[in-house]
Design a protein that fits this description.
By secondary structure, the protein is α/β, with parallel strands linked by helices. It contains 17 helices and ten strands.
Length: about 450
């Protein structure tokens, strides 16, 4: 709301500057100019455009605990984008005496926008920070663990003179941990965690187990992902599962958010926006091909056109993945099986679909729904995930992001026919997680198109 009001004020003030700007014939009076249809339309539309850019910048993803430096940089960047868009949409046709006047007009627009928006933002952020530091705003937090480490973590969070906002409301017992005496009355069993999160309106989870076993820690995090809450770890615990530590808060106890990957909030929003537009366009453009493939599949063998199967996705949540059926109906009964080379269950049409990866096309619907992304680690079934995690516990880190139709692992390694190959492909997915960006996504999509065109999908 603050950004919207500031954007309206900024556009209104800029139009006053524009009216008085040398070389622009804006009309007889300021009042008639401001009430003209073109200016009124701009007053309605351009603040909305500005809001769209602010949203895509990722500024609204994290309402609290904002870094002042990051807020300044985000505002400078998003205001610059707004200024250039407005210039090419509305100002480029202004007839000015000399070229330098264009630069002055642009600079005026940029300065007015920045001053208005950043002033409001800094007031709101400053007030929120003050309310948190004075302990007037608190965020209900559970510590996962109940031993000495958990008590130490609690004291580190409560020790600073200025509050960090964490309100420790309870502790969760892990395995055979013995609760420390001073927190025994606030300790709850692990199986009550989902109910506690709802009843206590929990907003943060902090992991502080007694043991240092990496497999157990990964397994624990995997069980916390479905709660859809920020999962924080102390730096010591984080070192056990990753060598790349990123800290943004240098005040108080260092905590790392394990529920989010390294990609910026702005890139997350842009990635999701691209997913929506591309998948929507693909479903429309490829609908004739869908019809042709459906006819071929029905003529080739009995059974449904589409095949759906439960997979595990973002934050370890199950979802139904959709594919064109490439095997005989009821090809898998009982124990889950992976396809093999020259698998007799694969139909003649299915073999072609797999070679060119056309069987994956219905997953654009999964992308549009939000179950998947265009690019991300391939989603697996729970049956195989349990086997992978026993040998490669760090697999659970992939649940920080949406799974994808294609991935770095699919491009570099291809389909996996057993758990050993799944683990071998996993290293590419971990590399992707550590190097996520829109540019990397674009490269993977280009290589995937090349794989489809050349028929090297098997």
């Amino acid at each position: 709301m603050g950004d919207y009001l500031a954007s309206n004020v900024a556009w209104f003030l800029f139009n006053i500057i524009r009216f008085h700007f040398p070389g622009i014939s804006a009309g007889v009076s300021l009042k008639s100019y401001l009430l003209s249809s073109r200016v009124v339309e701009g007053q309605i539309l351009f603040p909305l455009l500005m809001m769209g850019i602010y949203y895509l910048s990722g500024y609204y993803n994290q309402p609290f605990f904002k870094s002042r430096v990051q807020e300044l940089i985000q505002t400078l960047g998003s205001v610059l984008v707004n200024t250039l868009l407005i210039f090419f949409i509305a100002l480029i046709n202004d007839v000015l005496r000399i070229r330098i006047d264009n630069y002055e007009l642009l600079l005026s627009l940029y300065a007015v926008q920045f001053v208005c928006v950043y002033t409001v933002r800094s007031i709101i952020t400053g007030n929120a920070t003050a309310m948190i530091h004075r302990r007037k705003w608190k965020f209900n937090t559970l510590i996962i663990g109940c031993g000495d480490k958990a008590v130490k973590q609690m004291k580190e969070l409560e020790e600073p003179r200025l509050s960090l906002g964490y309100h420790i409301v309870g502790f969760i017992r892990i395995g055979n941990e013995t609760p420390a005496q001073e927190i025994e009355s606030r300790t709850f069993p692990f199986d009550k965690l989902p109910d506690l999160c709802r009843e206590m309106k929990i907003q943060e989870l902090i992991v502080a187990p007694e043991g240092n076993d990496s497999a157990e820690l990964h397994n624990l995090i995997n069980q916390l992902y479905p709660l859809n809450l920020p999962i924080k770890l102390g730096a010591d615990e984080f070192n056990i599962i990753s060598s790349r530590v990123r800290l943004t808060n240098i005040y108080g106890a260092p905590l790392i958010d394990m529920s989010n990957c390294a990609i910026s909030d702005g890139e997350k929003n842009m990635k999701r926006l691209c997913d929506i537009f591309i998948s929507f366009a693909a479903l429309i453009v490829l609908s004739p091909l869908f019809l042709i493939l459906a006819i071929l599949i029905k003529r080739d063998s009995d059974g449904p056109v589409f095949y759906k199967q439960e997979r595990i996705g973002y934050r370890h949540r199950p979802f139904k993945i959709y594919k064109f059926r490439t095997m005989k109906a009821n090809a898998e009964e009982g124990t889950p099986l992976l396809s093999e080379e020259n698998d007799t269950r694969v139909t003649s049409v299915g073999r072609v679909l797999r070679k060119y990866r056309l069987d994956e096309l219905p997953q654009f619907w999964n992308v549009l729904k939000g179950d998947m992304s265009l690019v991300g680690p391939r989603p697996e079934r729970e049956y195989f995930i349990r086997q992978i995690v026993q040998r490669a516990p760090y697999y659970v880190l992939l649940h920080q992001i949406r799974p994808g139709i294609t991935s770095w692992g699919m491009v570099k390694y291809g389909y996996a026919r057993n758990v050993d190959e799944m683990i071998a492909r996993l290293k590419y997915d971990i590399l992707y997680l550590e190097n996520m960006s829109l540019l990397v996504d674009l490269k993977i999509i280009i290589y995937t198109i090349k794989t489809v065109v050349t028929g090297k999908g098997v």
